[in-house]
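re: ur question from the group chat, yeah i did fold both. here u go
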Amino acid sequence: MMGKWRLGISAKLFAAIFSTCLLVLVTMHWGVRLSFEYGFVNYIKRGNEHRLMLLGDALAEEYTQHGNWTFLRHNTKAIFRILHALEQTPDASTLPPRGWRTQFWVIDQQYKVLVGPPRPPPAEGRRYPITTASGKIVGWVIGSPSERLTRIADINFDQQQRRTSWLIVALATLLAALVTWRLSRGLLAPVKRLVAGTHQLAAGDFSTRVTPGSRDELGQLAQDFNRLAGSLEKNQRMRRAFMADISHELRTPLAVLRGELEAIQDGVHQLTPEVMQALQGEVATLTKLVDDVHQLSLSDEGALAYRKSTIDLVPLLQLTVANFQARLERHPLRVQLTLPQQALQFGDPDRLQQLFSNLLENSLRYTDPGGWLHIDLTTDQQDIAITFEDSAPGVTDQQLSHLFERFYRTEGSRNRASGGSGLGLAICQNIVDAHDGRLTAAHSAAGGLAVRVYLPHSPHSASGLASR
């Protein structure tokens, strides 16, 4: 069981932040302690040195007045009087607080102790000569090392500072633990929501959403998660609708074929050329439907082979219209072309011709006989715009928003003889997307439909234009 135990992300984040805070606290504690001790020793050292210098000057004046050291030998009152006088001088304002924090000795020319503790003066102590006005050295003032004084005389103060600093570290550690705990919980709250949402999403619940709690990267991640869930939910609905539409589209021609074959088998109908033609028509409908579904699936996956090169769209449109000329005359449908001399584009000529053929087929199927179709090509600095605008009948605003959906036909009867499979415009949408373009639909001024294809200029088409 212990081998399987793992720290959660909350515990890991808490440990990382808290250990960092603890390291900073300990480092700051030792840094402050070292800085304090070093500064405190220097503070005492500078003050003591200054006091010893002043004491040496005062003793030199006293020696000059008395002519010898008799006044000071074994006379503690004299040294106290001198020290008290030093506290009243203007220089005393630059010294440490009142009270000497160092031991000192006063010795004469023969190195005999005049004033000081009973033990001998330390060899490492600082010596200041007592010099008269004539320059004669009549003795020395010796002070104990400041470091030794700090360790001995100020031990209580130092221990108090240590206890206080460690108490501050302990309180700061508790505060850091509390703040880190709340901070880790606050930071991980949106992550936990995302984890829970991901589990629901992986279980197939595409309707799940998470609430973005902030506008930072986690909030952006939550918004991206919601967009992903929305896309998956939409794809699921489209997949179900796609399967339902395919089954519906296949059911009717198969039912007709089955009925006709059963009637021939039962002797109700004779296998006449007319019956064979009707059966072939249903088979052709099924074949076209299967081909359209195959083309749509390939374009959805991006599996259609696109062999792009710099091409001229003007002759490509003219060729497409020429291929439909016989059917246009039988309908009849008048076609008017408004084309420039040249329109270069970097694209796949076969797929673009398929795009133009599907749009022309759409106008041919839905425009009333005797109507017209205007194909217009314009260019500007950003796009090449190709418009297929036909005459009545038109579509409603509601139908206009569904034109590029799969299996959608504007005819209420859904007659396959004129309505097709309902996949042509969906395939057009995928071809335009593969060329980084846009496909829009609007109402025509003549009461029909206006479909516009926007293909962006590319560096390849620009270079091709320059070469020509």
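okk and heres the other one u asked abt
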Amino acid sequence: MAEKKATAKKATETKAAAAKKETVKKTVATKAAKSVLAVNAENVGFKAGDVYQALAAEGKALTVKEIAKAAKISEEETLLGLGWLFKEGKLANDGDKVTLA
């Protein structure tokens, strides 16, 4: 009877270790799938152009999420572009929305 308990316990530990290993693999894969944005003047300038074109095409004030969706870029990239355009005086705030100046 003691042998059965030891074998069952070992099998349970093996299953738990396998499940933990699978979870670690999924976590690593998820983290590796995220893209890395190179922050330099050229890339930020391109994102600013994407943001400007999205705002011009819509013709109204948009939130950051709406701009990101319209420009087909991430919210982080949208914020980079917005910063560039605000610094140049091309944008104006309209509450929690942004519009062309």
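fwiw on the second one: The mean pLDDT is 81. Residues 2-33 form the longest helix (32 residues). idk if thats what u expected
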